[in-house]
Amino acid sequence: MTATLNQAPPVSPTDESPAPVASPRRGGGMNSSVILAILVGLIGIALTLGPVLYLIVGGFRTQGNLTSNPTGLPDPWMWQNYADILKEGIFWRQLFNSLVVALGTTIGVVLFGTMAAYPLARYRFKGREVIYLVFVTGLMFPLTVAVLPLYFIIKNLGLTGSLWGLIIPQIAFALPVTVIIMRPFLRAIPNELEEAASVDGVTRVGFFWRVVLPLARPGMITVGVLAFIGSWNAYLLPLLLLTGDAESMTLPLGVTQFQGEHASATTLIMAYTSLSMVPALVFFLLLERRIVDGLTGAVKG
Amino acid sequence: MSTIETSGKAAGPVGDTSSAGPRNVSPDLMAMRRRDQRRKWSEIALFTSPALILFALFVVFPVASAARYSLYKWNGVKKFSEAEFIGFENYTRALWGGNDPATQQAFKTAYSEPFWQAVGHNVLIIVASMAIQLPLALIIALILNRKFPGRSIVRVIIFAPYVISEVIAGVMWFIIFDPYGIATKFVESIGLSAPDGGWFESQTWGIWTVFFVVTWKYLGLAIILFLAGLSGVPQELQEAASIDGASWWQVQRRINIPLIGPTIRIWVFLSLIGSIQLFDMVWVLNRGGTQGQYATIATFMMQFGYFRKDVGFGSAVAVIMFLISLLVAVGYMLTVLRRDNDNSEVAR
Amino acid sequence: MAHMRRMAAIAALAASSALVLAACTSPSEDPTSGPTDTGSNSEPVTLTWWHNAVAGDNGENPLGDLWQSVADEFTADHPNVTIEIEQIQNEDLQRTRIPTALQSGDAPDIFQQWGGGELAAQVEAGYLMDLTGPLADTISSLGGAVAPWQTAGSTYGIPFQFGVEGIWYRKSLFEQAGITGEPATMAELGDAVNKLKAADIVPIAVGAGDKWPAAHWWYNFALRSCSKDVLQASGTSFDFSDACWVQAGKDLEEFIGTEPFQPDFTSTVAQTGATSSAGMVATGTAAMELMGHWNAFVYDGFMETDEDKAALSADLGWFPMPATASGAGDPTAALGGGDGFSCYIDAPAVCADFLAYIASADVQKRFAAEVGGLPVNPEAADSVTNENLKELAAVAGNAGYVQLWLDTTYGPNVGGAMNDGIVAIFGGSGDAQGVVDGMTAAAVVQ
Asked: What is the count of structural domains for chain A?
């Protein structure tokens, strides 16, 4: 079973689904099951979007307006709540930090994970399954179990306050999932390609770089997205490591720091939190189509 | 794991002639084979070493260290070499207050009761996820499993909360569930009142408010996973059944749900592991409550291990959490998931 | 070939990320790693300063403004020094930011310091700069007030305010409920509570959501229940076996049983928002609050106009914690504490000079006049005009003895356990014995 993932992978929500269960005798179109589906869909949208909209609109309110009329529209519209946050550098700085950390983690994970999965997929050697099992048991070691000692290790390495102190462990923790997902992908590459390459005088290493990697792209995208989202939303490790000033924090940590600093300005916190959702959502909207194949392949094992 | 073995051949090293050829091998061939073997091993090393080194240093070693720290009384500030070895005392303190009669009462109230309270919260979340989230997601997925106008928008939107960080979702809901906030105003407008003490602070309802927030965040994932599974169910089966006069519900129960069994079981597994490790959201929601009303094992560990500076004890709790995850994962894989493995082997 | 280009792109991305990372991490290291060797005024030095003065509900921040002017004046005098300020709300600062920063070694140069066992723990861990030598003059000028910021004969922090706590109340609400005179005993306080309830006013506001405001009730009961010797010995021995400690909890349970507080008190915070305990008193929703001297200017932060502020100030009264019916404690003893600042051990030497400036008579006078705080520098005592603060200072001066806040005295471990146990009493999930148990356990493991 490949799907021993301790981070649930995203699935494209726009999968094709079978046609409505309707016998040819019943007419198509608006029958009760379709209406039910629309109703449930609308309720789902309302429950999902409602709180988010409340938060976003709340960012436009004044404190007084929030307490006296929370369900109505803001009056006056405090554009400057959002404007002030966007004008001030700290939000962008934290966004940038999150981006750097997430990119660093993703590149490291995809690169090292695929590299490690390659021999495990296509070579035969003693101890291969043992190494694979090592990575599988890694799934049982969540960050929360290791975080205290890990914190001391990073501190001793002098990496507290540095974004590298965040990236390197995050790569390490994302490797098990990556290796487990990539191995079947790499396995599926036909041997004929490899034989043909060797006939052409290409080394195995060269084969990896030139042929395998491009072919494994769907899998790499899947693990890349997983790693990116995981890193982007990480909180515990940044909490312990990025202690110095708010400028060095990543975005989720920055939200809580902002909340602490402006505790009485709830609407300002709402604005900041709303803005912090945007990057993740944009990323998601751009990529949700690309994710499907890799994931369904992994889940179906 | 056995299914992976059979899918796709593991390619042997290119140019390896060891599996074929005549029995009498010349010395030159032997030398070449040895060279090939060495090259193969060095390539394996090259490819796997970055991952293995990082993994060993930053995953395996810390977990082993946690096991080691858990046997000491250490506050994380003074040198570890000066820490006092206390054997399994940290564990016994968590489980029943320790073995020292002089301090047992103290540790029972201070350490053991909050520990079991946190464990109880994790168990509650696990059970509630199975009893509430699973059926709910299943039914919604079954209902949404058709063409209808706006289908793709619905799917994208209900999946979105999964992508937002737990922290951001937590801050948002903390504002909404403020005792003087909009949730209170809403229930008061329909004649009810907010729980005694506050939505989160209530002794009885706090954990359920947290469960509600967790559900908000992760239900969409379950629905989408189930929908993906349902998309693999052949249309003809459903049509045939309905032609034979089966009602909609009978079709779901007899055909769709069993056929997405593997998907459901995978989701259950993910949910189990995630529920045991729940930290970020609970921590942001006021660290599990002023009296630990909804603390989880993970927040309990951080509270005592890091902020109260009892690193030895925190490590012991972490090890316990690891053992629980291991037991649950292995137990689940051996019992429930084995069925899927066996089935898919048979299907081959 | 396409894959080569992609490899190159990935490599370029990795390289540029590495460069960017290197560039990004260095600025965050600069502020805390200035030169520590020299008192020379020519090396450019940056000091990071974390303090707890954040804007009140009305958006004003008199203390924050004062600190900003102080910083500006100092940098004008010392052109090579830059001071970067981060204002952090009190609970976040004390519970999260300072502990994590000190633990990780990436700490600010100047940070809030409450003294007592908290300070002793930080000294033991080697986090604080020894100020005994560099600030000998300042220390002697401040007199006995520095004591909580000293340990083992050396000074590690400089206070800027100190005072005792008591019960703030709204005179008009007392009038409305028909209460004449300030309660001097717990029985009289109970009376006042009943009258306020009859008049449909919340008798006492408590910010149990932040834990320490609730804990202060227990501290005061302990002050009345335990003898001076037991109290003072516990600070070093961490011995809580005397029955007076459990008795304090029982007194508290009894008091809570009379339901003197606002509903949902564990969800109420202390200082932020109109629904905080301070907000309730400022807006006239609640009549009383047990708090320290700083509330004189915290309440101000809820008022928009100068007239409102003046009106509120005139309507505020203060009386010390009433005497209990029994107990070994000195009925004139008072619980008090204050705020100060410490320098991180790796901070530049000029940090100490900055602390001296903060404690100077001039700045302290402005603290009293512009912010409405209670300064420690004796030369600034006359600048205090607030009637309540004057009364407070008098009570402090006449007290049998002043005990430092218990959570500060005992340090973060025992203190944290104590506060948790007390909040459990408030929330109904714990009892008097539980508090002592928590403190005993924490003392064993620290």
From this structure: 1
